[in-house]
From TrEMBL:
E.C. no: 3.6.4.13
Biological processes annotated in GO: mRNA processing; RNA splicing
Organism, as annotated: Cardamine amara subsp. amara
Gene Ontology molecular-function annotations: ATP binding; hydrolase activity; RNA helicase activity
Keyword terms: ATP-binding, Helicase, Hydrolase, mRNA processing, mRNA splicing, Nucleotide-binding, Spliceosome
Record protein name field: RNA helicase
InterPro entries from the UniProt entry: AAA+_ATPase, DEAD-box_helicase_OB_fold, DEAD/DEAH_box_helicase_dom, DNA/RNA_helicase_DEAH_CS, HA2_WH, Helicase-assoc_dom, Helicase_ATP-bd, Helicase_C-like
Superkingdom classification of source: Eukaryota
Domain Helicase ATP-binding: residue ranges: 51-238
Catalytic activity: ATP + H2O = ADP + phosphate + H(+)
Comp. bias intervals (Polar residues): 8-25
Lineage of source species: Eukaryota, Viridiplantae, Streptophyta, Embryophyta, Tracheophyta
Length: 701
DNA sequence: GAGCACTGC
């Protein structure tokens, strides 16, 4: 029996379709199989003990390795033990949408209930829960949003935070919040005193039951969580994985790409059947290794050429991603060249061999320059462990680490928590909205640097979300915290409302929140560029995005099909393909547009358009994004006004060749150079006119 | 002349 689909796309039980000839018999056997499978999981034997521990302890840390069954089974144990009485729910959070969905489906099946009844999931844009839902799987970000509306999370008797070891920003903030909520719910009503903040408010005059917290982690190190929760009890649940042989090189490899290639062919020619998974750092590397594999295959005798290289990374359109899942033709061995996406987000069946060069591309943030960077850095021990585990899902496997064992010992235990390497403005705005005012003194698991906090506070103040005393500004700060957007985009919507171009800004912001709306395949670069030119505005990327979105809308209007979501998707996909637009991104932008439009309408804004007056819209962009402006230098490079950095226009910008004098931009990121992305041409005088609190002199720099 | 991975009632 394959191990559980954790974020995987396939569930073993779903594949067992009932036999139409004898539905009762096969349904019975499916139920039997499910029961057998559940009983065989390592966690099944400790059900009684786990429930006792939950009853005894308000906080419990569960360390469970892959395949223990903790994510699917523990919520069912809790349900059976009566934790969902009186309408209370058990909430289970996941860092990823796909995991919330697949696990909920699986558990509904195991409970033999319809999804959305006793068992359901809720993620952004897709909520299957109902009033009868008792086991609710969701993303951690969504629970954070829920806390803004119900600060005591009063509908939950137990909250399970799964995959806590990944230490995403959402998980870290959620854990801090849950710690506070739990204390608030323990205190008798009215004893919180007059100084209470809003996390503690709201339970006046009403009885609220205690909240149980369960932190689940696959970490080697549960101490961090245990210490954070005041020495909370940690229990270990055995995993169930097939053994994976770890092999190291004798000497350091100077060229890990070449070492990976050599290893691929060594496995292909010498090892037994089974597919190969290679972890590389990015699209470029993946595509060049793909070419090199193809080339070297040509040098092999005909009968040894049955090796099929496939690629997978997040920017790849879904259809092409799916190719990695299809079984190889008979006699062929697949070699999957993947980024980190294959570490946790997707599970490809059939992998027996993993090649791990030991590197990862990671984002980091420099608060003083307001600049992000993407650097190739050594992976952590936890990551390399996760990677090798990918070889042991279906049978014994092998993992080839392309460095000596002594190098492994030097790796960091775990990846630096994301909260220590990202822009904090959104996190801080959320905390402020939850009534937490002392950010510097806030009880983070890992405290971000003081500089990073100060920078974010300053940004929020400049955006008008905070007062000079760093209190939430009324009403702007509250409005901004309610929108599921970066604070700077929320601010843009509020300004656009005042400047009568809210319709345009809603679309623009929706597109800016997605990862690249254009699809730009290397092999059809000329065609893709021609298509981009068709949409391009000489005034910049924002106006270009506006016309892409509007044209897709018009196309849909013209084709006015009666209703069905599926049909709309199909038509949009075709349009996207013809126009080199990434359909996943466009769909996401359309969903976001709908959601944020609803939000601003609820705030009482009227969505009005500036029609053809793009000047007014660009002025609004300047007023919104004044913190990120750049001016051309004599030598043709640009200087970012805020940080003074010398920057370059990113080649994907429609302004790449036009070299305007002054622009605002949304993103400053260092990769091979310091690039600015998503730009619009502005008149530099607008900055002093529209953001006088920031640009005091008449001539910016 | 170039894009690690996630996420938000």
């Amino acid at each position: 029996m394959p191990s559980m689909a954790q974020g995987g796309l396939n569930s073993s039980v779903q594949n067992n379709k009932p036999n139409p000839k004898s539905p009762t018999a096969s349904l019975f056997s499916i139920r039997q199989k499910i029961a057998q499978h559940r009983k065989s999981l390592p966690i099944a034997s400790v059900e009684k003990r786990l429930i006792e521990e939950v009853q005894k302890n308000d906080i419990l840390i569960i360390v469970g390795e892959t395949g223990s069954g903790k994510t699917t089974q523990l919520p069912q144990f809790l349900y059976n033990a009566g934790f969902c009485q009186e309408g209370k729910m058990v909430g289970i959070t996941q860092p990823r949408r796909i995991a919330a969905v697949t696990v909920a489906k699986r558990v509904a099946e195991e409970c033999d209930v319809e999804l959305g009844q006793r068992v359901g999931y809720s993620i952004r844009f897709d909520d299957t829960t109902s009033t009868s839902t008792r086991l609710k799987y969701m993303t951690d970000g969504l629970l954070l949003r829920e806390a803004l509306l119900d600060p005591h999370l009063s509908r939950y008797s137990v909250i399970i935070v799964d995959e806590a070891h990944e230490r995403t920003v959402h998980t870290d903030v959620l854990l801090a919040l849950l710690k506070k909520v739990q204390r608030a719910r323990l205190k008798p009503v009215g004893e919180n005193g007059p100084q209470q903040n809003s996390v503690l408010r709201g339970c006046q005059g009403r009885k609220i039951s205690p909240l149980k917290l369960i932190i689940m982690s696959a970490s080697l190190d549960a101490r961090v969580f245990s210490e954070y929760f005041g020495g909370a009890k940690a229990v270990h649940v055995e995993g169930r994985q097939h053994p994976v042989d770890i092999l190291y090189t004798a000497h350091p490899e100077s060229d890990y790409i070449d070492a990976a290639l050599v290893t691929i062919f060594q496995i292909h020619l010498e090892e037994k059947v089974g597919d190969i998974l290679v972890f590389l750092t990015g699209q470029d590397e993946i595509e060049s290794v793909e070419r090199l594999v193809q080339e070297r295959l040509q040098h092999l005798p005909e009968d040894k050429r049955k090796l099929l290289p496939l690629t997978i990374f997040s920017a790849l359109p879904s259809e092409q991603q799916m190719q990695a899942f299809a079984p190889a033709p008979t006699g062929f061995r697949k070699v999957i060249l993947a980024t980190n996406i294959a570490e946790t987000s997707i599970t490809i069946p059939g992998i027996r061999y993993v090649i791990d060069p030991g590197f990862v591309k990671a984002r980091s943030y420099n608060p003083s320059k307001g600049m992000e960077s993407l650097d190739v850095v050594p992976a952590s021990k936890a990551q390399t462990l996760q990677r090798s585990g990918r070889a042991g899902r279906e049978g014994p496997g092998k993992c080839f680490r392309l460095y000596p064992e002594r190098e492994f010992e030097k790796l960091e235990d775990s990846t630096k928590p994301e909260i220590k390497r990202c822009n904090l403005s959104n996190v801080i705005l959320q905390l402020k909205a939850l009534g937490i005012d002392d950010i510097i003194g806030f009880d983070f698991i890992d405290k971000p640097s003081r500089g990073s906090i100060v920078k974010a506070l300053e940004e929020l103040r400049l955006l008008g979300a905070l007062t000079d005393e760093c209190k939430l500004e009324n009403p702007v700060g509250y409005q901004m915290s309610r929108l599921p957007l970066d604070p700077v985009y929320s601010r843009a919507l509020i300004l656009a409302n005042q400047m009568n171009c809210l319709e345009e800004m809603l679309i623009t912001v929706a597109v800016l929140t997605v990862e690249s709306i254009f699809y730009d395949p290397r092999e059809k670069r000329e065609e893709a560029r021609a298509s981009r030119n068709h949409f391009a505005s000489v005034e910049g990327d924002h106006l270009t995005y506006l016309s892409v979105y509007r044209e897709s809308d018009e196309f849909l209007e013209k084709r006015k099909v009666a209703g069905s979501e599926n049909k709309i998707d199909k038509i949009m996909k075709k349009w996207c393909k013809d126009n080199f637009v990434n359909s996943r991104s466009l769909k996401h932008a359309r969903d976001t547009y709908r959601q944020i439009r609803e939000h601003v309408e609820q705030m009482g804004f009227t969505v009005s358009s500036c029609g053809n007056d793009m000047l007014e819209f660009r002025r609004c962009l300047a007023a919104s994004f004044f913190l990120k402006a750049a001016q051309r230098q004599l030598d043709g490079t640009y200087r970012a006004l805020e940080s003074g950095e010398i920057v370059h226009i990113h080649p994907t910008s429609v302004l790449f060749r036009s070299k305007p004098e002054c622009v605002i931009f949304n993103e400053l990121m260092q990769t091979s150079k310091k690039y600015i992305k998503n730009l619009t041409i502005i008149d530099p005088l607008w900055l002093t006119e529209l953001a006088p609190h920031h640009y005091k002199s008449a001539e910016p720099v």
